[in-house]
Amino acid sequence: MTKNKDPLNIIITGVGGQGNVLLSQFVGKALVREGYHATIGETYGASQRGGAVMSHLRVSRDTQYGPLIAQGQADIVLGLEPLETMRVLSQYGNSEVVVITNSRPIFPVAVTTGEGVYPSPEQIQSTLEALSSKCWVVDATEIALEMGAPILANIIMMGALVGAGLLPIGAAAFEAELRDSFAGERLETNLAAFRRGMSLTAS
Amino acid sequence: MANVATFEAGTAQLLMGNEGIARGALEAGIGFASAYPGNPSSEIIGTLADVAADAGIYVEWSINEKVALEAAAAAAFAGVRSICAMKHNGLNVVLDFLMGLNVTGTKAGLVLVTCDDPGALSSTEEEDSRPVAKWACVPLLEPATFQEEKDMTRWAFELSEQFKTMFLLRGVTRTSHARGDVRIGERLPPNREARFTVDVPLQYTAIPAPPKHMAAHQRQERIREVFEEAPFNWYQGPEKPELLIATCGSGWFYSIEAVRALKAEDRVGILKLGTTWPLPEKLVRRNLARAEKVLVVEEIDPFLENNLKELVGEDPAAVGPKKFYGKRSGHIPSAGEINPDIVTAALAKILDIEHAPVDPDYSQKALALTSFFVHPRMVGFCAGCPHRATFWSVKNALKLDGRDGFVTGDIGCYTMAVGPTGFWQLKTAQAMGSAAGMACGFGNLKGLGFKQPVIAACGDSTFFHATIPALISGIYNKADYILLVLDNSATAMTGFQPHPGTGRTATGGPAPAIDIADVCRALGVRTEVTDPFDLQGTTEKLLDLLEDDGKVRVLVSRRECQLVRARREKAPYVMRVDQEKCIGETCGCARLCTRVFQCPGLIWDAAKGAARIDEVICAGCGVCADICSAGAIIREAAQ
Which residues numbered 48-77 in A keep a CB inside 8 Å of some CB on B? Predict the structure, then answer.
């Protein structure tokens, strides 16, 4: 079981502007709230400008770990964008890794300009299955659009991570973090997004 | 809501290294904080600005780093503990003052934090700040853990006040801009009364130089003695290891990880140093004597490595023969970021251990399955960015002008115009204000046959920071150039901090808004203002200014940063592509909108052979409707 591994190495990835940093911070804070050591290393230079972004999150009961995960050592990859999930797996993946990815593409410039191709949903599914021990592809952005704001996709993905039972802590710590960060209608929306996300991966 | 000022002592909090530094400064009872923003340092003063009211302290974004340190030093001279923060480039700006402040000393604690960016993840160059400590005779601390970011900052204030000299604290991206759990300490209140008094003649002057320089060296030796006992230096490992790793800062975590990955705990010891200038020489010699082989793990330059070698050279008999590994030997790269893989590979090579970090079967499979799809993502202007629109007009105006004109640039979001989303328009990029400074040179080459028009591009924050002197120099010397101010009303690249043009202070209060166009007009130069989203109007103004040559002229291209606007209000337009009208590949410039304009909100629908709007990314600025010659991109007012 992933959740008992120490350190637990999680990579959260996406494209600048998707809320990658905020999402990793929520997960880190929930873990610290429950008494865990958590470290987050971020690639952030491009964080709002369409670049590939990645947060390395390291969790331990015993000690604090450094902010970067070594190659091939990810236990969980949480992707806000499918191509970025693939990029991370090619560098940090291994046959045991567990993957949850959002299905919605953000085309890199090479695809928009016609020099490159973007994988089909079937190719994404089969590639991720081949490169992981278990994977979920979830329609977080589509659900977020239904809920009225595409940025909610990151909270839906956080719910999916918790719903899959991959972390050593449960939903309560995350809901407490959301209550600390939002109020009123925004809190209700974020709680709804989080719970909707949990239902996507709960067995 | 809890923040770094109100966190309860004894609790564990997830803090960014920079927030830890801010908390450490609050725990030390600072009363004054100043900076010019620059990543990876921006959150130190940003965090303090956000909690200034709760903490009862004064916080400002200064016009540039030199003024920031001058202001912080003044507060310290008046008896108030002060912190000043900047990125490595800022340290260059500040050096002229620092090289006098170092010998002048201080009254209250004064800590200058400089954050280096190995790998230049958010910089235009990489640079090691640490040699300044040795050069300027200023004590240097390098935190390695998140807890140390906070605790060393607090400690630095105590020592700074005890020794009456400023302290330098160096962060790097992976210590300053990473997050980890930190145990919060008690806060000293900033209850000092500010008063400037001169107790000894010439107390606050750098002169007389030689005696003050001598005193700085003597003080350094006394600080070295304190560093011998510092709680931030330690050795971990066997009594007599085969190899000693000497490390500091970000190298600490990577080193323990490398030793663990190779299961080399019985063969390798680690000397972790938090006080890297002046080095605690007794402690260092004692530990160097443990092993013949020494691997030095540090980021950017071989600063620690060279200083260790210096100590060995002074008294070789005390430590015995040594073989050093590190940047000079090529085991650690001499440029770019280091990481656990680099340190593990270096250690494996020296210890002759077979190490395959990644399962080769998995790697090959991953490469085969993903390499066809995984394209790089170029960093570029955001959807709806006014800079894209400005550079579109610049590109067209220079082409229509036809005299091979070009754009000089400097540092800000607009630096990205060196790449495709700014249509490769920026031809130079070095330092803040250098666009105008270089234009002063290009613009005075007429006597040597130079006929090309020159446009110097700077941002609004950069205008205030370093462009004004170059502008005045250009006017005075009759240089021929257009200063193009890309005014997006924020220091956007570093996190939208306010500046003298925005009418807001660091802590959110009102401030006099200094109008850039008014400043230029007051200098007597022709100054035009344009809205970059008006592509035709901007191009026409540029063409007119290009014709009006022989002197300095100014165009202020003014439109608020899209990311700032989007926080406040909804998009003005809903965009869509009429795919029946879109002529796709047969369009005059072969897909002008997706291939050339390259806004991430406009994507290519391969199935339909036409452009399409990505409704998640499109910012609804409406500019692309004006570039589509087929009239296929439709702009409708948002409901």
Answer: 48-52, 64-73
